[in-house]
Design brief:
37 helices, three-stranded antiparallel sheet, eleven-stranded mixed sheet, alpha/beta, about 1000 residues
């Protein structure tokens, strides 16, 4: 076989000296046909060369030449989805390569043989994947991975091809998060010399984003891929892009555009004879035809696609057509045919371990049961029918929701949740139909438990080559606890950061794992876990972990027995669902349900009255003329919110408990949709009685934030009397009158705040050390390193007053919320610099330096939070507006705080009151609020003390309606606990 060095540059039409003529020029000509999507011409050239090679005297070199030609034939036929012919060519090529494995060959010859072996293994894996043999495909890729170290791959082509095929395998398994992570890592590490793989990786990322609801990102990937295919001169791949864009348009709901693009792609595939790709388009067009009411056209297209897939042996794709056919059969009332097709499709998915599609089948069956319940009277069998629907829907919905934990970013997870929302709404509808309060309680507890931060810097485990989650390159893999493997050796432990993935954490976001099990008893010991049998069914049926191994009680009442307490949880599922239960000497429970439209109208009315986070001065100006700044309109808004959100029965219970046992404590865990609601302000009856008149109110965070590993925190000094004051730190690069300028005005200009500092100075507990109160304000040395040192020494309180920048809710990444200390841009951290300043992000507080260096420390060691923390800044408590709460306030809870006082929305400064409401400069509403929070945090019951001040403000607002007493400021404040 050839054993000489080759320095000839590759290129379209270039002839690489390898075998001599006419083979070298023939190979170049066939490759050019392939790039131009001239499949027939390319195969004809290869067959002509094969006939010539077979006429030569047999030798290892000739067998290698024939194996090379057959591998190229297989590559062309795979591209054209002629899977049967590709299988034959691959089998023949592989046999020839095996036959010469022991033949003498020089170093160059050995490398050429290895390269061809790798090509055939990767191509065989691709073929097996397309025909639904996913486990066998993985075996081929693992064999290629074992051979790869022997191969000198200077341009990275075979390495990247192997990685790309693992990405495709994960996509077919529905492991979208793992597929995206590996594709992104591979794209960043693949050299530009691997020109054929990079655009295919971009296409894969585009399909992943399309499948998980991120359509702008998908189009960006497709556009970049299109440009690279154009530069390569790869006409065939350019012609496949309309089909990919059509898929994205269909998922986005742009059905007319999807139809046009699928028709365009179908015409090309039919001309070229690419029947596998044509079948995919026919399948999609059948769905579109059904949506526009063309049942006959839909059935014809489905039958055509199913026949093509079955002829090609593409079992999973054929099952997809069956599933779509089942939906059409149900629509026309053919229940038996619907069941037959759905069961056949599910059998294929189960056999191939494509569990996400198994869940989709079960959801479709559950929806048909619900639809049948709506259409017909089931009489005495109605409960049985509902139970059957729930037994399908609830485990499937749990599995679909849990699929989000495979994604590396909160943004991707939040978009995935949007896709799973329909399944969750189905479950809640069935539970309400069943009138099962107990199951509704358990659903709410599970939904509200929250994702668990995946943080394990000490783990050095690696994923075995044969693992389902193993995707090349190894350096970018997720790693798992070394002892968290199932019986097959497959990793199922908590994900941690490893290799390149860890280094990229600053841009990739936080990783999370499933929520803890919620024990439906406050006592320790064995007890029922929320949704126990449904979780077990989901994990068994779909091979996906639904909950973490750790258990937490649904709430802890250890320190609350001296007063009555009611815990309220709210869950979004189209409508708004509420559960509540009493403790602390009171007994009782209840559930509530608010129609989604009513909830949305009430929340919109509130939002219109609030300062907009991204609206700057104009948003604040609107707020000063909005409902919260006008007495009569505020009262109407408070009543509107109560009518939509608050059950009258709960108000009655609070009154009864209050008369018998004293003022109760109301603990509310809001859902993201209602996280900005000032619950204290709700007018719970027509006489303007507010909730805060009847009870103290505290906000609760998800149970997953409850500290589980105290050893993570830095050791505290025995002297913990210190109160760390961070008061209006000077942000580098921003003047006092700029957007990140002064919050409190010139140092020494505010008597109330000077008195606050003086009181702490007299008590001897102020950090930083200052000689006069004025020195505590607008300091330039209060950066993250100083804060770390102050907190590590031990403190009982932290009071931060300054700028807080919330993350956009649409982005889904609460950890991007930041505090603005005196950190310069060169400071090491995970947030992007702003001018000459680097903010301290919640991601910093959580991850610390783990993503930045091998010996990094978690944020809880670098910034251990004292028991009480106040973050007085714009929307510092906006964390709970996100599906995953990991913003500044909840990061403090994670780092050890027992209580955090934060704000629900953007705060007006005293200067804003002066400028927009013409208050005299001697009136400083923000300063009064800061003093009130400081006093509350010094009190043994900070929630009660802060509530008392808020009630005083409410009484003044009722009495005189003056703007400085309006809820615009004081109702933004809330205490957050776990």
């Amino acid at each position: 076989m050839p054993d000489h060095e080759d320095d000839t540059a590759d290129g379209v039409g270039a002839v690489t000296p390898l075998y001599g003529e006419p083979f070298d020029s023939g190979l170049a000509r066939a490759e050019e046909h392939h790039l131009n999507a001239e499949v027939g011409a390319a195969v004809a050239v290869y067959e002509e060369l094969l006939m010539l090679a077979e006429s030569l005297e047999d030798s290892p070199d000739v067998r290698f030449l024939r194996a090379h030609l057959l591998a190229n034939v297989a590559s062309v036929q795979l591209a054209a989805t002629d899977l049967v012919a590709a299988q034959d060519a691959l089998d023949r090529s592989h046999a020839l390569l095996d036959g010469i494995a022991s033949a003498p060959m020089g170093p160059r010859g050995r490398q050429l043989w290895l390269e061809l072996v790798l090509r055939t293994l990767i191509a065989r894996a691709d073929l097996l994947r397309r025909t639904g043999h996913l486990d066998e495909a993985l075996v081929c890729l693992d064999e290629a991975a074992l051979r790869l170290p022997e191969f000198d791959d200077p341009d990275g082509l075979r390495t990247s091809e192997l990685g790309l095929n693992r990405v495709h395998l994960l996509m077919d398994q529905g492991a979208w998060g793992a597929a995206e992570e590996q594709a992104s890592a591979l794209l960043s590490s693949t050299p530009e010399t691997a020109v054929e793989t990079i655009p295919r990786l971009l296409v894969a990322l585009g399909l992943i984003c399309s499948s998980t609801g991120r359509f702008d990102a998908a189009e960006d990937h497709f556009a970049r891929a299109e440009e690279r295919f154009r530069l390569l001169g790869d006409t065939g791949e350019q012609q496949t892009l309309p089909a990919h864009r059509a898929y994205a348009a269909m998922r986005r709901g742009e059905l007319d555009l999807a139809e046009r693009l699928f028709a365009e792609a179908s015409a090309f595939f039919e001309r070229q004879g690419w029947f596998g790709d044509l079948a995919v388009c026919e399948q999609a067009r059948a769905f579109l035809a059904g949506r526009r009411g063309d049942d006959s056209g839909a059935e014809d297209l489905l039958a055509a696609s199913l026949e093509r897939f079955e002829r090609l042996g593409a079992s999973i794709a054929a099952a997809d057509s069956m599933l779509l056919g089942a939906q059409h059969a149900y629509a026309r009332g053919d229940i038996d045919e619907m069941k037959r097709l759905a069961q056949e499709a599910r059998h294929v998915y189960q056999e191939r371990e494509v569990y996400e599609r198994c869940a989709q089948v079960d959801l479709m069956l559950a929806r048909t049961l619900e639809d049948n319940l709506n259409r017909t009277d089931h009489g005495d069998r109605e409960r049985e029918s509902i139970d059957n629907a729930l037994s399908l829907a609830l485990p499937a919905a749990l599995a679909l929701e849990a699929a989000r934990y495979g994604f590396a970013t909160a943004h991707a997870r939040s978009e995935w949740l949007r896709l799973a929302e329909d399944a969750v709404q189905l479950v809640f509808r069935l539970v309400m139909r069943r009138k099962d309060q107990g199951l509704l309680f358990e659903l709410a507890e599970h939904r509200c438990a929250g994702a668990t931060l995946a943080l394990n810097p000490s783990s050095t485990a690696t994923t075995p080559v044969g693992d389902r989650a193993s995707v090349f390159p190894n350096a970018a893999m997720k790693t798992y606890w070394h002892d968290a493997n199932d019986d097959d050796g497959h990793a199922n432990g908590t994900m941690t950061l490893g290799g390149v993935a860890a280094e990229a954490a600053a841009s990739a976001g936080l990783r999370v794992s499933p929520p803890p099990k919620v024990r439906m008893s406050a006592q320790a010991g064995p007890g029922r876990v929320a949704l126990q049998e449904y979780i077990e069914a989901a994990e068994f049926r779909y091979g996906r972990r639904i909950v973490d191994a750790e258990e937490v009680p649904f709430w802890i009442t250890d320190d609350m027995t001296s007063r009555p307490v009611v815990q309220i949880r709210l869950a979004d599922a189209g409508d708004l669902f509420m559960t509540w239960t009493w403790a602390g000497g009171a007994r009782g429970f209840g559930t509530g349900h608010g129609p989604g439209d009513e909830i949305d109208r009430a929340v919109r009315a509130l939002t219109d009255a609030l300062p907009g986070a991204g609206d700057g001065a104009e948003g604040m100006r609107r707020a000063f003329t909005g409902a919260l700044a006008d007495h009569d309109r505020e009262r109407r808004l408070a009543r509107t919110l109560a009518e939509a959100l608050w059950p009258e029965g709960l108000t009655a219970q609070i009154r009864q408990v209050s008369e018998r046992a004293g003022r109760p404590l109301v603990r509310i865990q809001p859902s993201p949709r209602v996280a900005q609601v000032p619950w204290e302000l709700l007018a719970v009856d027509d006489t303007d009685v507010r909730l805060i008149d009847l009870a103290d109110v505290v906000t609760t965070a998800p149970a997953s934030l409850r500290p589980r590993n105290p050893a993570v925190a830095a050791p505290q000094s025995a002297d913990t009397d210190a109160v760390v004051l961070v008061l209006d730190p000077r942000v580098p690069g921003f003047r006092a009158d700029s957007p990140l300028g002064s919050v409190l005005g010139p140092p020494g200009s505010d008597p109330e705040l000077l008195s606050l500092v003086r009181r702490h100075l007299d008590a001897g507990d102020v950090v930083p050390s200052v000689a006069t109160p004025a020195e505590a304000f607008r300091r330039t040395d209060l950066d993250r390193d100083w804060l770390s040192g102050a907190l590590r020494k031990g403190a009982r309180r932290l009071l931060y007053v300054g700028h807080v920048s919330g993350a956009p809710v649409a982005g889904g990444q609460s950890e991007d919320g930041t505090l603005h200390l005196a950190c310069a841009a060169e400071t090491v951290g995970l947030a992007e610099p702003v001018r000459t300043h680097r903010p301290l992000s919640a991601k910093d507080l959580l991850l610390g330096t783990l993503p930045l260096r091998a010996d990094g420390e978690p944020g809880a060691r670098i910034w251990p939070a004292p028991a009480r923390v106040a973050l007085i800044g714009c929307e510092s408590g906006g964390d709970l507006r996100f599906a995953e709460s990991f913003g500044p306030a909840t990061a403090m809870l994670h780092n050890g705080a027992e209580l955090v006082t934060a704000t629900r929305w953007v705060l007006p400064t005293s200067f804003a009151f002066h400028r927009l409401a013409q208050l005299p400069e001697s009136v400083r509403p923000l300063s009064e609020a800061i003093v009130a929070v400081d006093a509350a945090h010094e009190h043994e019951d900070p929630v009660h003390r802060l509530g008392r001040w808020q009630r005083e403000q409410l009484d003044r607002w009722r009495a005189d309606g003056r703007i400085e007493h309006s809820p615009l400021l004081w109702a933004a404040l809330t205490c957050i606990v776990v």
